[in-house]
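Running this now, will post back.
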Amino acid sequence: RPRLAGYIPHIDSVSTRVLADDWVADDPRFLSYPAFKKLTLDIASEVFMGHPAGTDHKLVTTINEAFTMVTRAGNAIVRKPVPPLTWWRGIRARKVLEDYFAGRIAEKRRSASNDMFSVLCHAQDEEGRSFTDEQVIAHMIFLMMAAHDTTTSTLTTMAYHLAANPEWQ
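Update: finished.
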């Protein structure tokens, strides 16, 4: 059973690689929010899902867009599945995420990997009961949204305030 501290070196290696490959110093066109979003999604993809960042750009983009739409749907005014409104798009995006995780549960249950997805697939309570597939899927969607979206927003806000207040730097 991995401890959270065991993920720190992995997070550090992903961060170091992304910063070296994707970030350019002193570029006035550098946009913090998309860069932070890509960084946190790459970290979450590897550490939480066991999916190496950069290995399947189309898949990562699809999943990222689905997470973004599910998050936006939480702010929908009309909460009925009416095309093309936000709530309807959020429901469709949630299905993309559910299908993605459902399609990988059997593999993760056979895996000895220590990514969070595998850990959830193997977790048992005191009575030896495991999470159902639906519970694993719900936990993974929540974990990915909580980890990558909130961290992206926090980093963007911090960068803004540091830029607006150079004396804080």
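The helical segments are 8-22, 32-47, 57-73, 86-110, 116-122, 133-164. More later if anyone needs it.
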